[in-house]
Amino acid sequence: VDAMLACARLRLLESNSGACNPVVFASTDLSQAFLCGTLADFVLPRYGALLSSHKNCRLVSVAYSPDNHWAALIINTEAQKVCWGDSLGRKLPPRMRDSIRSWLRLHLGDAIFTFHEDLRCAAQNDWYSCPIIAVNTIKHHVFNDALWKTEEREMIRVEEAIAIMDKLMMPKYAPMSTVRSRYLISTGFSHTYDIQMSNDISVPTPIA
Q1: What is the average per-residue pLDDT within 35-53?
Q2: Is the peptide bond before 67 cis (omega within 30 degrees of 0)?
Q3: What's the count of helices (H) and strands (E) in the chain, helices before strands?
């Protein structure tokens, strides 16, 4: 899932379309921090600082939803909305809702965010497509991509695998920061790649 998110972030950087309305891609560690405190002391302050420094931005991520499910999460600081898109129609987990509310209050002060569980997304009709549908939901709202369709699901899986191999296994760009990220994105091919999920929105430097 993180590899697919990393590819989407690189796509945004390559398009140079995020300069006016920044989009912060957050790794799945964010939802784990909300749900069970994993790496919370590092993850939550890091993304909180990004939101507080970009007052009119969207934080987008794929969030884990127990048990064994993934959904799309978009936090829009300009509209002061937390949006949840679940391909099975599940609700935002109450513990995550409470954690998000406290986290936003800590980093954005008195801003009052409303929660919405109707983020437009495709409906899932199998037991395994939720991660790709969640990533597709993010792409739909960031890039205006078409929503996932059942008849295209296998082709989309192939396209995502090709994108991971092209962008992460054979990276075309130098590291996005001189500071090594603690986020090492696992591609599922028994390798990890130093791809930062969020630090800035500048275009990376091509390798000569």
Answers
A1: 90
A2: yes
A3: 6, 7
